[in-house]
Write a structure and sequence with these properties.
Layout lengths: L5 E6 L3 H16 L3 E3 L7 E6 L4 H17 L4 E6 H5 L1 H6 L5 E3 L7 H9 L27 E4 L1 E2 L10 H5 L3 E2 L2 H13 L4 E5 L7 E2 L2 E2 H9 L6 E4 L9 H6 L8 E3 L7 H7 L5 H14 L4 E8 L6 H14 L3 E6 L17 H26 L3 E9 L4 E4 L5 E4 L8 E10 L6 E6 L1
């Protein structure tokens, strides 16, 4: 078999998808494939899709169409959550060679190998396994994402994820710890825990806090970051663990709404007071702690008063960044059938307001960090500058070249206007 075959990837959606793509990238590189940009000719195109919103569906279908238009005899593989949601229609779409569901995504390498050997094959012939991904030794990213959990049992009324990712299941702790040791030995300086609902991690007698404690106790020069997490399943023990130098002082803590009325309709398992109390508890211990969040605007029945409560909490909580989503009806969810759906014009205006608050918060937080130190993980180099992220998940520009994938001690000195949003600037100390 010709080992000069080229493969290209496109990943949409969450960090869990990014982790799974990174693992596949490593697997194909070990098989001798050349990984090329998605806009270049390739023998294989893999589109790792997202279906969390209608916009996600549109982007995923667009990327699949782009791959199909580029092909001669290329293999086009659609995988990810949109495949779980629309498997039959994607299998029938001309130009798609294979539609691979999440449970069999880890078998894509073997599927492609079988295809080029001339074997008659199908994704359904491979076993279901959510965690049987190879260790990522060289990925498309500087950080190494570590999958610890998949699926969700919460069934929020707006969310399609339990349908496309299935029930919650956790990865054995021993496998996670071994995975982290291997990626740090391979040179990664930061590992990021990812999953669908990682705060609900539970394997045998170990919960999420127990797992984090074991990870930061591992040897090696690396830092640990927690990705998007629901405000449940953890408490005082995790708060204490943030005192450890390996655990980065940042949480993307998902709020979704600042109205208790809407939170109840969403089937969220907390109220605003509980959420804010959690943030206050952490900030009392770590005043510079960085919180980011998600907010959905235009949920069915969201009144102007409900929205104003969300806007007020967005300011009060001082999130340095808010991922703002306009409510998107997903077939098969309770919210799609609710009365009092909000017009797109109203959702667009509410989204604009939350984004403005997010930018105001960001500038205030950045200003509060001037004159302070960050340990920056360098991710990109230019002719006379370097870019990276500090431990608080702050984007930092350094006006000199520093080795890629290295950690630099930086004093924050300025706020610069970025292409989309402001970035911090600093100097090596």
């Amino acid at each position: 078999m010709d080992r000069s075959l080229k493969i290209a990837f496109k990943t949409l959606g969450c960090r869990l998808n990014q982790y799974e793509t990174d693992a596949l990238v490593s697997a194909f590189r070990h098989k001798g494939y050349e990984v090329v940009p998605f806009n270049q000719p390739a023998d294989v195109y893999v589109v790792n899709t997202c279906t969390v919103t209608n916009q996600s569906d549109h982007k995923s279908r667009n990327m699949i169409s782009q791959a199909i238009r580029r092909t001669g005899n290329s293999v086009v593989i659609a995988t990810g959550c949109m495949v779980n949601h629309y498997k039959e229609s994607l299998e029938q779409q001309p130009g798609i060679t294979y539609a691979v569901q999440n449970d069999r995504k880890s078998s894509i390498t073997d599927l492609v190998e079988a295809h080029f050997k001339g074997e008659i094959t199908s994704p359904d012939l491979f076993p279901e396994d959510k965690f049987h991904f190879p260790v990522t030794d060289k990925s498309l990213h500087t950080r190494s994402l570590i999958k610890i959990q998949d699926g969700c049992d919460n069934y929020c009324s707006y969310c399609i994820i339990p349908k496309v990712r299935g029930r919650a299941v956790s990865r054995p702790a021993g496998e996670i710890l071994e995975n982290i040791l291997r990626v740090t030995d391979a040179g990664f300086k930061e590992v990021v825990l990812t999953g669908v609902n990682i705060g609900r991690y539970q394997y045998e007698n170990e919960n999420f806090e127990d797992l984090v404690e074991k990870i930061i106790g591992l040897p090696g020069d690396f830092r640990l970051r927690i990705s998007s997490i629901e405000p449940e399943g953890f408490g005082e023990k995790l708060f204490d663990l943030f005192a450890h130098p390996k655990l980065t002082p940042h949480l993307h803590l998902c709020l979704q709404s600042g109205s208790d009325h809407i939170l109840k309709k969403m089937h969220r398992k907390y109220d605003v007071k509980t959420f804010m109390g959690m943030m206050e508890n952490i900030r009392k211990r770590y005043p510079d702690f960085n919180f980011t969040t998600d907010i959905i605007v235009g949920f069915p029945g969201e009144t102007e008063e409900d929205f104003l409560q969300s806007a007020g909490i967005a300011r009060e909580a001082r999130f340095s960044h808010i991922h703002t989503f306009k409510f998107s009806k997903r077939d098969g969810t309770l919210a799609a059938r609710m009365e009092n759906q909000i017009s797109d014009a109203v959702k667009t205006e509410r989204s604009r307001i939350i984004r403005e608050i997010s930018l105001e918060n960001k500038l205030k937080y950045y200003q509060s960090m001037l004159g302070k130190k960050q340990k920056v993980l360098i991710e990109k180099e230019g002719k006379n500058f370097s870019l990276g992220y500090g431990q608080h998940y702050l984007p930092v520009t350094i006006r000199e070249r520093v080795g890629n994938n290295s950690l630099a001690n930086v004093l924050l000195t300025d706020i610069l206007e970025g292409k989309k949003e402001p970035v911090l600037a600093g100097r090596i100390i």
